[in-house]
């Protein structure tokens, strides 16, 4: 009799990649294809293909997995309650703890494909390393620049969050600027670059975006906005007027990135 996972794959509700990954786990560790660990492996693979690095088990606990409509065909798989789910996964040899090497990593409430846990952990280490190393900043020059780029309205008592974002970005090795369309991200970015160049005029800056269209749109906005900021013309001239995709910047050749830890970008600011 075919397993429920195979039936879901035959119904088109589970990708072949997820099914065969789960079947590999079952064969490698002597598990039943319908066991909780194997079904969880299929779930993690399925979510990974949709762009998630992990599965938050609380989100799926006590619910039909993969496709609720499959219950009509008798192929439904319902997840256990969250606490029960964790207790069933923890003793399985195919599932490791954080930091271990195993096909799956359980860091409750999240279940990862093992390699994606290690990818994420490496990114975390690199971020923390950058955050622990503060740049050399002339505070008086930064204050003058902030006050010039963000003159305070006389009647306003609200904080200027763009000004705060600029100050934080200049004072950190890593900054994340977020906001919906029209919230001023590009304008803030241009002012951050101006403030950085006022601190270090020889700063080597690179601009990149995920896609060519995004890079072109970013560059067009930067070119337009940098003409209107109250900064010395020499500073405005140093704000880059070239941008690339991340893949081009890191010299991806279809197989690997030529730019890496051993061959880093010749940049001070990206």
Can you give a write-up of this model?
Helix 2 (16-29) runs antiparallel to helix 3 (36-49). It is elongated, with a radius of gyration of 25 Å. The strands form two sheets. It has a four-stranded mixed sheet. A two-stranded parallel sheet has the order 5-6. The protein starts with a helix and ends in a 21-residue tail after the last helix. It has 270 residues and is α/β, with parallel strands linked by helices. The protein has helices spanning 4-10, 16-29, 36-49, 57-60, 82-89, 114-131, 139-149, 161-170, 185-199, 212-226, 233-238, 246-249; strands at residues 54-56, 95-96, 104-107, 110-113, 208-209, 244-245. The protein has twelve helices and six strands. Strand 3 (104-107) and strand 4 form a beta hairpin.
Helix content: 40-55%
- Helical segment tally? 12
Strand order of the largest sheet: 1-4-3-2
- DSSP strand count: 6
Supply the helix-strand structural class. alpha/beta
How far apart lie the N and C ends? Answer: 56 Å
What gross morphology would you assign?
elongated
What is the gist of this entry?
With 270 residues, this protein is of the alpha/beta class. 47% of the residues lie in helices and 6% in strands.
Architecture blueprint of SSEs:
Elements: H1 4-10, H2 16-29, H3 36-49, E1 54-56, H4 57-60, H5 82-89, E2 95-96, E3 104-107, E4 110-113, H6 114-131, H7 139-149, H8 161-170, H9 185-199, E5 208-209, H10 212-226, H11 233-238, E6 244-245, H12 246-249
Parallel strand pairs: 2-3, 5-6
Antiparallel strand pairs: 1-4, 3-4
